[in-house]
Amino acid sequence: MLRRLVTGDPSLAVIGLSKNAGKTTVFNALGMEASHQGISTAMVSIGVDGEERDVWSGREKPPVRVYRGFLVATASPLFEERPGDWEIQGVTPFTSALGPIAIARAMRDTRVKLAGVTTVGRVQELEVLFRQHGAKLILVDGAYDRRAAASPLVTRAAVCVVGASLGTSLDEVIEKARGAIRLLTLPTTTDPSMIQAVEKACAEGKVVGVGKDTITVFPNRSLLVGWEELRERLACDEWRGLALPGALTDTALERLISLRKPLSIGLVEPTRCFASWSGMRRMARLGGEITCLHALVLRAIAMNPVSPEGWSFDPAEMKEKIEQVCQGIPVVDVLRHDRTLPDQNGQEHQERR
Amino acid sequence: MDAWTKEALLWPEVWVKFRPLTSMGQRAKGALSPFMPGEELEWQETLERQVHLLTFAEEDPDGAVRIEGALSKLPDIESILLHLDQGGVPGMTEWFQLQEFLRWGTRLQRWVRDGSLNGWPDLDLTVWQQVISLLNPGPGSRIQDSFSINRGFDPRLETLTKQQFQLERRFVAEKERVADRIEDDYPISRNRDGEWIVDRGAAFLDAMRQDGRMERARETTFEVLFRALPSSEMVKITEEKARVEREQVTVTEEVFARLATQVHPFVPDLRRVLIAITHLDIDWARMRAAQSWQGVRPSEGDSIVIAAGRHPVMEQRLKEEGRVFTPVDVEVKRGVTVFIGPNMGGKTVALRTIGLIVSLGHYGFLVPAKECSMPLTPWVTAVIGDAQDVHAGLSTFGAEVVRLAKWVDRSDAGLLLLDEIGRGTNPVEGEALSVALTDHLAKGHGWVVHATHYRETIEIKNVRVYRTGGLNQTKKMPVVNAPETARQWLLDRMNFCLQPWQPSDGFPQEALTIAAQLGLPSEVIVGAQKRILAKSPGDKLPEGGAKPGKGDRRWKTD
């Protein structure tokens, strides 16, 4: 499974649904597999501010394993810790709290802390630099609060890590995972009017209404400011959809639900959707739907049944239950890979080194 | 130029067009000061270099792209030079940046030379090659585009690296051997991390617990994670690896310290080149900005003479509205120059254009005009627009007076741009103040331009007067209710051209016409006309255009 993951896409993000989900373990496993496959690989992290510690837990960020020939972008002082291991390829204009972000090639197998760049735009620019230096696969380590790492505007595909730390009971973990997976796999819109409306919403940074035959740009930048005026306009029957330039939050969704209309909501891409699973279901019951201009390709769900906070779940049961809610997306357990895993055709096989 | 003036001249929007490509150039931009009186020679030299750059950029666009490419790649090494000056030892990334500076600096030097760009002799650094050789040891000293300590700086590092590789290979082989032995005894495979995760229900769990070759790393309700204990051979190799790594660190520190000692004597030369490149970058950015507004070189003169002057920002705004900017032709001598003309007629635009052109000239730019000459003045100040200072609790009038008080009696002669002084208070006192101020300034030796509606200002001795063309009223405006349509109609018929005023031109009185066309009720307009007649019974009702006013002796016709 990991082999398919590292050979299938030119860029892959790893995102965690909670802190301590086991993201670094999955990231390291993908790096190891890429190295075994001889793929020219680059690594970068998207974080809050290049911090050395996890901003939420205060735990020191674990270093990632880097293999000879890999390219890495991180704060330059982190390369200085083992200067003999690196060949500096460039220093970017981006800075983190630890210093400027540099790009280096590993001269041998080593480890390094990935200090994050802060914005999607900068990750995109780094990707260009990586490609110029010959990278065929770019692995993006996403901070858990940065689902943006998985944005289809950043990477071609993503692996989502569901860890035991997501909830204290397996049922809670599965329920939260179900909602998160639904959000990340929002369908792509096929309605030409909605496509046009979302593009317009992006270009103008305004909410755009989709009528029966018309597309109208409203003065609102979101549903949170100037809602009363917008509500009055949306109250008539002419509107069948709404394209948003930014995020869809629960508050915004509640407002739309209060209209009691079967509205179609268009977003740029799934990581802009922060609505709850329950809110989305209520919208669906009204006949509404949430779609995206760019779909996120969720290649796999990686599971980790052990929480560093002290609890754990039966790995087999957890895997089975995640498979039930993940809509056919393969579930991988990178630490228990000697167990049977489904391949692309649904056939079970032994994955061994 | 103070913040008010910058705002009035739309300076920030022009300043963003000035974009140095290096980070040292961007820093220098922030600290750039205008040329001052006494610096005319340096000022003209700067302008001359830009003319040369402009010619080069237009004649050899590929060469210009090469120079810009090199400038945009040059890193800022000021902090590295400072570090070396202070006896510090730069780290790997800093050495890389110094190498990049040399790599792109040599190219820039070559392209500047190939382009016959004179004026930057300091780029001829004789030590380029020597510093490059220090950072790129080995035969040929070819400069690299990456930096690694393992690149022949010290033969010991190569030996240590080889040892390290061998030890790592041995370690991995031994680790695999140990793990394989364990797996010979149990029906389970290790995972990617070399660990065994065993279900609690596994029959061999107890045996693994008792096995002295492994340790229990973690245990949960469902499974136990085992890790192989290192063999004595692995311990030996680990110790050997640690020794090699320690030695590597020591040698690396020695190499970096040696490099610092070797490069240190070249710091003054490198700094000189850094400064020269910064100057080139600043001049290049000035040239590119001026290219965007088709700038010309201003010459030195005692009067401000502008032919076909333009304000690039206002020109762009008008272009977006589908309109054309009317260029400004003006001569501002010492003393006071007065602009008169109707509302919306372009007086303020002319003031802004003059202020901007003079300011750009002071900052060493080619200016947006067809021709220009100007003196260097110690200051340029504009009292334009609604200068209400909310924080100081001052009214429009109060804020205006506070600013005037600061600049009117300066002993050094600067350029003062005034827009409708006295408009913010009652008309009688406002006019009196405006006229008295103009009279006072006309006796000074600075350059003052005053746009005003007060007719008595133009009666002052030695005041030069310009008027804007005003409204063409040959066609009556159609009745429209939308103010924007009326505005467009007025703008379409307004002649913004600034021209020397002649007594026969009369004094413009088009406010009521404009007010009517912008939608004020007709009864208000008629009421206003009656009040004018009541105050000046001998006059006819103004119908727009030039009209001699009572007491305006200079244009009164017999």
Automatic annotation (TrEMBL), chain A:
It comes from the Bacteria. This is Uncharacterized protein. It comes from Marininema halotolerans.
TrEMBL record, chain B:
The keyword Protein biosynthesis does not apply. SMART domains: MUTSac (SM00534), MUTSd (SM00533). Pfam families: MutS_V. Residues 5-317 form the DNA mismatch repair protein MutS core domain. Keywords: ATP-binding, DNA damage, DNA repair, DNA-binding, Nucleotide-binding. Residues 549-558 have a biased composition (Basic and acidic residues). SUPFAM superfamilies: DNA repair protein MutS, domain III, P-loop containing nucleoside triphosphate hydrolases. Residues 333-533 form the DNA mismatch repair proteins mutS family domain. GO terms for molecular function: ATP binding; ATP-dependent DNA damage sensor activity; mismatched DNA binding. It comes from the Bacteria. Residues 535-558 are annotated as: Disordered. GO terms for biological process: mismatch repair. Belongs to the DNA mismatch repair MutS family. This is MutS domain V. It comes from Marininema halotolerans. The lineage of its organism: Bacteria, Bacillati, Bacillota, Bacilli, Bacillales.
